Fold these 2 entries.
Entry 1:
Amino acid sequence: MISKIINIGKIVTWDNVLDDLSVCNQSNLEIMIQDNEIIEIGENLENNKDQNIIDAENGLITPGFVDCHTHPIFFGDRSHEFKLRSEGKTYQDIAKTGGGIKYSIKRLREATKEQIFEEALPRIKSFLKKGTTTIEAKSGYGLTLNDEIKSLEVIKMLNDNSNLDIIPTFMGAHDFPMEYHENKNAYVDLICNEMIPRVAEYKLAKFCDVFCEIGYFSVKQSERILKTGMDYGLLPRLHADEFADSGAAQLAADIRACSADHLMHSNKDALKAMADNNVVSVILPGTTFFLGKKEYVNAENIINSGGEIAIASDYNPGSCTIQSMPMIMFLSNLYCKLPLEQGFKASTYNPAKALKLDQNIGLVKKGYIADLLIWNIKELSEIPYMFNNEDRFVKVIKNGNVIN
Ligand SMILES: [Zn+2]
């Protein structure tokens, strides 16, 4: 099917050749789409009676947002913990009494695949309503062979039953389950000897992720897990240096990971090594905000090291329930010192890079997938400025189809 977008006010996209923001606002600009791909952008493109016409109503067009770090596969939320937090309890206090991730693990293990799917589907649809057209999604609340496979199978079911594209990540190394607290290396053995081979055999994930942090997976354990994943064709990415400088960012550089995420406490040498090895720095200001912390990651340190930044929601039941990329842009612009244009690149093109999809999504460009947002706004700055206003979409286009 051929579709043509007419009445375009402006097209705003990152230009990956000039490495700069591109703003096109000449009159009679149109976009031609064949099936799911942009095949032409220009003035007064040819007419054909079989074309499907999409009226942009003089709106501004951007690529759909790409959210490259989420944990949406959980069962039962943790709103009861929020009450405790509102009474002054910290995340750590709650974790000590059996709450936190332990609660999510218990609930997910008890639920069937179908129950988890039913509960997760509205969440998945909600991403799309907020303008996110691709997410990365991690397992990691099961932490047994069967429960990790179950979580990844739910991701596959969600992918098959929604318009959102969901890129699966195996994260059996999210935490050590209770039953392995006395013998942590045995759990690393389980991940490397049983989980990774099975995930690869069933083709259930593109990436392998590890929570590399003091008190969680050590640099040595993380390296073993990620290298085993690589042997089985799973691309490496890391949760790195969220609570302390644990050496995780340096490990990301050493193994040339696709991304290292959080980076709250990474040192400058490690950030430089990451930049030199094309590891995308993913920053997650929504988590800092949701946890009520004062100190945000400073994007200037990453930019000065020469690194590429992506921003993501870190959507999960415990430390961030934000799904809106405009809000994440707002937080990164204001609190992480990421200028507006860089925040836009960090929510479209760079997360596509972190997911190794930058040849296909994240830009409004000929040959790219037609994942497009048509906004009822005049300027890019209105996106983070009015972050809480979802009725500004004229249309959301996913794979060439108008979905709202
Ligand atoms: Zn995370």
Entry 2:
Amino acid sequence: MGSLTEVTNTGDGFMATTIDAVVNWGRKNSLWPMPLGLSCCAIEMMSMVGPRFDLARFGAEAMRFSPRQCDLMIVAGTLTWKMAQAARTIYDQMPEPKWVIAMGVCASSGGMYRNYSVVQGVDLLFPVDMYVPGCPPRPEAVIDAVLKLQKRIERERAWSTGRQRPMPANPRGPILARS
Ligand code: SF4
């Protein structure tokens, strides 16, 4: 815990720090991913939590298919407009604070699927914190995104109220009526 300062020579000893540092330290080291595996990228995401790449080293391996217990959505694959409402509902069900990683070019920008049926980047539906390029990205690239996200969480205000990031303007109002 690099930001903590130990004060010595005081008899009993104590540590001085800020609430932000303690809360963010806990948050960044216990990310619970919500895997949104939509197509081929999901295979790389699965290997990321396996023994070879071992995301558990960074405290983020507890994948649960339960949005209300998760705080990190990993969108891995091609998101179609037909699935968009479901993806947005899952995002809405996750409690704040929450973060999103767009894994691969399909999730980041629609990739090679430049057509009417594919969402041209999941940031049209909800805010994205990290974009991972590649088709598919290697597991190390996603782990790198998790580490960079942890660095960002370190600097956040722990007690900010309400939604931490603005929602994007909704280009498909009738489809995502609740946004
Ligand atoms: S980025 Fe490539 S590997 Fe990933 S979902 Fe798209 S086509 Fe599949």
